[in-house]
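Supplementary Note 2. Why include the ligand at all?

Several targets in our set were suspected to adopt different conformations when bound, so apo predictions alone were not considered sufficient. For every target with a known small-molecule partner we therefore ran a joint prediction. The input for pseudouridine-5'-monophosphate is given below.
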Amino acid sequence: MTLPLTPSPEVARALAEGAPLVALESTIITHGMPWPQNLETARAAEDAVRAAGAVPATMAVIEGRIRVGLDAETLEGFARSTDVAKLSRADFAACLARGGSGATTVSATMIAARAAGIAVFATGGIGGVHRGAETSFDISADLQELAQTPVTVVAAGAKAILDLPKTYEVLETLGVPVIAYRSDRLPAFWSRDSGLPAPLRMDDPAEIARAHAMRATLGLPGGQLVTNPIPEADEIPSDDLAPAITMALAEAEARGIAAKAVTPFLLDRIFHMTDGRSLTANIALVLNNARLAAAIARELGASSA
Ligand code: PSU
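The joint prediction is reproduced in token form.
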């Protein structure tokens, strides 16, 4: 069976030339942000990657094919639609086999990136262990994916709606390197400091690229999580956000929101409760991650050349 993969002309050229590429996901567009900021951010993230000297590859599944790099019309169609499936490792192959369409989460984007030969991926914040997981068992497929698929993921940490200590504990158990960029602390998505110490710190994209290559040399499966704190000017201190997170979680529980619907519900409630401040911060951190991912992708190309 041949891989149902369609790169855009820009991505196909970059792959043929060995130019640095950065994967971007599409769930953040369909389930993570409201219209029209979702489309503006998707475009701005692509531009940020280009400005930093790499080629962006926004991933999605359309009519049974993995699209690597989306044209303007497709991107806008995704951003406008309200009933797109949210794909992760568990349903990715089934969607392709049925000729379906869907947005890729972190786990599905990592699978698509590996299939396309792209080693670096920028997102906002990864999924992780949900609060109350001791009874709900709700743990994002993103964590298992990091343990299995050799892609370096740049994020502002795991989303602060999660149980962060448990999320990082699971990543440690799974053997996923968590590298804090230019910080001794792990960030908390909208805030720069989660209060948790960083297991590893690196200050230079070249070093992060070498660590990625070294895992392959050692024959280790899985990727790396690079935590990149939101720029100081854009952060929302954790104390300001805590009441909104608590209220949103209580609402989700009262309304019986479960499984894939939890994260989009919480992000939307927090957006309304903070009068849009959480979205402004989310956009800033996505662009910041796109820039760092491009720098790592460039170094990775240089080190393997
Ligand atoms: N980053 C953001 N916003 C998002 C996401 C990432 O800034 O909405 C998405 C990613 O696609 C990630 C998903 O994989 O949230 C996590 O969803 P869940 O907790 O259901 O696994």
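The radius of gyration is 18 Å. Residues 25, 27-28, 31-32, 105-106, 123-125, 127, 140-142, 260, 263, 267, 282 surround pseudouridine-5'-monophosphate (CB under 6 Å). Comparable summaries for the other entries are listed in the accompanying table.
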